[in-house]
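Exercise: predict the fold of this chain.
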Amino acid sequence: MVIIETERLYISEVTLEDAEFIFELMTAPSWIRYIGDRGIETIEDAKNYIREKHIQSYKDLGFGFYKIILKDDNTPLGMCGLIKRKILADVDIGYALLPKYEGMGYAFEAANATLDYAVNTLNFKKVVAITTNDNYRSIHLLEKIGMKYEKNIFYDDGEELLLFSN
């Protein structure tokens, strides 16, 4: 189901049929480095992750992380969406692309549209984002979609992160 449409992209719910794509994305070195290892080692692990995280979030919250798809050929290229983390008071926006699609403006297009969706469709007054202090591309993208640095926070594992908000 398409949630958001932009000039070049469809942003839609992740389904169990996306397990191979999710496996590829979540085992990419950039995912592991900047987002973290989620223990996805097999396609079955990816299916379980989809069931427990993505599909459950859609049911429980009415939103979640979505698959980014190229309109031209229906190729999945990444994820962008919203998550409610226990450590944050507000909903968090996040995104990740397969390495071969980085640097083409897709993350900006998806994140900008998702932030708009969060504010104007879901009516969230405040949306936040977290990133590591060395993820310069993410910091730049957050600033480009109008988010501003608020403060440093410490995540569950003690890692220091930068907190941005709209």
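Check your answer against the key: The longest strand covers residues 76-83.
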